[in-house]
Amino acid sequence: MQIRKKMLGAAAVGVSAVLALGACSPPQDEGNGGGGENSVTWIVNQPGGGWNHNSNEGGSVYVIQMLHGVLPVPGFWSPEGQWEWNTDLIVNTPELIEGDQVSWEYQINPDANWSDGEPISAEDFIWQWKMTSGDDEICAEGCNSRGSTLGSLIESVEGSDDGKTVTVTLKEDAQFPGWFTFGADGLYPAHVAVAEGIDLDTADGMLESSHFFNDAPLTISGAEYVFDGTPALDGRTVKVANEEYWGDTPDIGEIILEVNTEEGSWVPALTNGEVQGAAPASWSDDVITQLEGLENVEFGVDSGGSWEHLDVNMNNEALQDEALRHAIFNAIDVQNIADRTYGEKFPDITPRTNHVFSTSSEFHQDTITEHGHGAGDADAALELLEEAGYELNGDTLELDGEAVPALRLRYTAGHVAREIISELIQADLSEIGITAEIETTDDLGGTLAEADYDLMLFGWSTTPDFYGSPHQYWHSESGSNFGGLDVEEVDTLVDRTMNSSTPEESAEHANEAAALVAEQAYVLPIVDTPAFYFYDTSFIDGVTDNNAQSRRALWNQHEWTAVN
Amino acid sequence: MLVYTARRLAVAIPVLLAASVLVFLMVDLSGDPLADLRLQQPPPSEEVMAAAEARYYLDRSTPERYWLWMTGIGGNGDIGLLQGEFGPSVRGGAFDIGEQLASSITVTLRLVTAAIIAALGLAILSGVVSAMRQYSKLDYTLTFIGFLALAMPTFWLGALIKEGGLWFNQTTGTGFFYTIGANSARVSNMTNWEYFLDSAGHLVLPTVTLMLTSFASWSRYQRTSMLEVLNSDYVRLARAKGVPNRVVVRRHALRTALIPLVTVATIGVVGIIEGVVITETIFQWRGLGYFFIEAVKTNDAFAVMSWLMLSGTLVVLASLVADILYGVLDPRIRYE
Fold it and tell me: Do A36 and B186 touch (CB under 8 A)?
């Protein structure tokens, strides 16, 4: 018994000692120094998947936010949706050079160096093109890249003047209205991959470099900030001012990005001084309610970077009747949906009236209202149906004496707003004798890919870089044209949208295509999902949200100033 | 004892094997790990999808995938539980499931150890006092507190405790309590004392949340056990012999009354580790709970399976340890 006691005592002391040591020795990180001065902690509301933003795992807004200020960018979208060049990096104003093939030229600032002293050069642009080319002969397995329309249209990227002049040439007959967005999410230091012994001139080498940049964070920087210590995609990323940066030094010397998935903890952490702000990718009435009335906190709400819509499956026999589709869209009250979902905290919300452009876009044209879509007018819908030979028998809509079959209306399980929208649609359709059976899915990708629905409620993200979107949504050969729209004229227009020489011309074609899609009653736009941001005004100044960019409010972090 | 332990370990092997089959099949049938990839805009090319399917072994049959997951034979060197490889994560090469599990366990153990120590201490104290003052106002009060803690959902309890911490900070004008994370960001610049205070400030609120849920049930066990012992013949004999009450309680009654609690607590540790999912989410600790939630959210099949297998192994081990401890502590029990 005595021995047992001693053993238990020793074990207890051991456990205590381990815990105490673990708790009392701060881990020492070999970082880039700095920090401490004017430190701001900012919430990122989901973890990232990989450090290469071009990759399938790393291609998320969260990773782009973490990498922002570390990777050099040629230009960016302003909050108003206007393209601006990064004059710290690019000293000319690139313009299209018309010739046999379309090209343009960047002149890189001669002072622009990576923080290890190597110049930012054409090699970094070349790597970016190869990474997004989608050509297996240039990069094996498509470089595990999430793909880029522009990357696939580029024939060559060449350097001159010691790599400080970069010429990008598109393939023969190719045009792309968004040519200026090349490299907009950030350029990687190709020389680091070469120093690792990777041969970037081979397809396998390029794939290896893709994984190399994906698996570990950069230790050098080509912009205002540099990672300090070991940043974690699912934890904490510390960025400190890059002492080697050739431009202005930011006033905020340290930005800590804290992954925090629990929205209920954001406002308590804000009021407790543990974080100073966030621009979450998801909407939350609860968080906004908590923010209302708080002192020293500024928050804003605006239309965000995604939009909700209802898609029709054209393979459904009943839905192949255009009149029925129009009637369904007429019966749905979109303003009511907007009010009941986001209206309480965002009273300015209005129905979306174009598939490609939100109301605030300079290219926006209302292609929806003229068809009565989203009006919630059951009488007009019934009139359309009667003209097409349908008859409302009690509560049931019939065609040639047979009831119109019930329609499966699906949305992603757990999505609160879509649950409300589905129920409202169900109620609207019951007024014209159509039964909508609501079903959720845990596998949105699989459900869409297999077109396992009659009516599908989901969202698309959107940026000012709209040029490839119509092709993706509606081209008969697009893998994302889930409901199976097949209209030759639409195909032609979406091809032209992608192959225009200017954004204006491209927008014209996109609007024409959108008008045809509305005529087909294929997709009913519902609302732009609103987005919000907040920050502690007693800590920082100069914060503005930017829904045109994945970086959101962090887009001008280098211009933020510390209060006091 | 050694023979008994070996026998129990031998029985545990088929149990874990059966668990691995169930875990694999349930996770395998629960969804497509590449669903997010398929939904990307623009959609990935067929080559990218084929490469991804090969990378995550989705181009193999279900039995083949199970074999690979267990043994790693025929794989790319990144899979095989028996070789210590947990499989590739759909979150990319930057996310090593083994490394993440190891760092998560470290974080969770800190929280769980503190919660268990606090819960045991409080449960013993409250159980003994309740038993000794049976049917008194104090007994009723402690019983009420116990049932209240037992009935309150953890997410609600956590939110209340967090608000309490915030109120304390605001009232006192200090920043002692933290509401998110296990440590502050800039710990490498701290002295040991500052780091200790920082760690303690982060630890208190989640520990109290986790502790209260276990304390409630354990204190009831302790009260019942103590009452049983206090009413036993040998205690009555000790009192009849004139042994002071304090000595009777401490030396004779408490020691015996602790035996059931030790075994209950051993099994309960597993429950706490699994229950830590909610607490870690509320307080944003990067432990096992957070690991599991993120794995589920990202359809990271191998990560989910690893977590479930770890939980299963812990349950088997904990029940073994509980049985062995019972034999060690209770002289009436002897394993042949």
Answer: yes
Q: With contact defined as beta carbons under 8 Å apart, do A284 and A261 qualify?
A: no
Q: What is the DSSP string of B48-74?
A: HHHHHHHHTTTTS-HHHHHHHHHH-TT
Instruction: Give the gap in angstroms from C-alpha A50 to the nearest C-alpha of chain B.
Output: 6
Residues ≥6 apart with Cβ < 8 Å to A177: A467, A498, A500, A501, A502, A503, A505, A506
A26/B52 touch (CB, cutoff 8 Å), yes or no: no
> Of A286, A259, A469, A437, which Cα lies nearest the Cα of B95?
A259
**Residue partners of A511: CB distance under 8 A and separation at least 6:** A354, A356, A357, A363, A365, A367
Tens digit of pLDDT for each residue in B8-25? 888 889 999 999 999 999
* List of chain A residues whose C-beta atoms are within 8 Å of the C-beta of residue B47: 136, 141-142
ipTM over 0.95: no
Helices B255-283 and B154-172: crossing angle, nearest 10°? 80
Residue labelled with tokens 């297996």: A136
Shortest CA gap B179–chain A (Å): 6
Assign domain B110-329 one CATH number from 3.40.630.30, 3.30.565.10, 1.10.3720.10, 3.40.50.1010: 1.10.3720.10
- ∠ CA A494-A180-A54 to the nearest 5 degrees? 85
Nearest CA distance, B141 vs chain A (angstrom): 31
Distance CA B127, CA B136 (A): 13
Type of residue at A513: A
Distance CA A250, CA B294 (A): 34
Structure letter (DSSP) for residue B81 = G
Interface with chain B: mutation pick from A234, A238, A240, A473, highest number of B CBs within 10 Å: A234
The DSSP annotation for A85-101 comes to E-TTTB-S----B-SSS
Ramachandran angles phi, psi of B14, nearest 5°:
-65, -30
What type of residue is A370?
Answer: E
3 state SS of A461: strand
pLDDT band at A281 (very low <50, low <70, confident <90, very high): confident
Q: For the segment A207-231, what is each residue's pLDDT rounded down to a tens digit?
A: 999 999 999 999 999 999 999 988 9
* Integer CA distances (angstroms), A179 to A59, A182, A258, A500, B164, in order: 20, 6, 34, 10, 55
Sites in chain B below the pLDDT cut of 50 = none
- The partner residue sitting opposite A262, judged by closest CB among B110, B191, B284, is B284
**Whole-Å CA distances, B205 to B33, B105, B178, B197, B227:** 35, 19, 8, 14, 32
Put simply, the answer to whether A15 touches B163 (Cβ < 8 Å) is no
Work out the pLDDT band at A32, boundaries 50, 70, 90: low
Tokens of A406: 């019930």
Quote the CA–CA distance of A490 and A492 in Å, as a whole number: 5
Identify the three-state secondary structure at position A275.
coil
d(CA A112, CA A120): 6
Residue A310, classed as helix, strand or coil, is: strand
Minimum Cα–Cα distance from A444: chain B residue: B35
In whole angstroms, give the CA distance from residue B327 to residue B267.
15
For B39, nearest residue in chain A (alpha carbons): A445
Residue A385 CA to residue A560 CA, distance in Å, equals 58
Q: Are A334 and A351 in contact (CB under 8 A)?
A: yes
Query: Does residue B42 have a cis peptide bond before it, meaning omega lies within 30 degrees of 0?
Result: yes
Q: Where in chain B is the domain with CATH 1.10.3720.10?
A: 110-329
* Residue A237 CA: distances (Å) to CA of A240, A270, A271, A550, B297: 10, 18, 21, 17, 21
Question: Looking at beta carbons, which residues of chain A come within 8 Å of B40?
Answer: 56, 59, 146-147
CB contact under 8 A, A136 and B47: yes
Polymer length of chain B? 336
